[in-house]
Amino acid sequence: IPQKGKLLTASLDSIERGCAGPPNYRFALTGQTWQLLREHFPNLIPRICVRGAVFARMTSDQKQQLVSELMTLGYYV
Question: Which residues form the signal peptide (predicted)?
């Protein structure tokens, strides 16, 4: 969020707290974004998986990682 030359970032928690009801947002991720999340923010992976709508331009290994994460969360894939 740009503000007077500064870049502010919002956390998932702050986004969800700002919602009046159940969270109503989705994510679209590329393979590059998926890899960065896995490397630097692994704690966010479960939340990203269940809020993801589009997972595009992913390698076969990244797709397998996504499927494994979803299955760990109890999804049938």
Answer: none
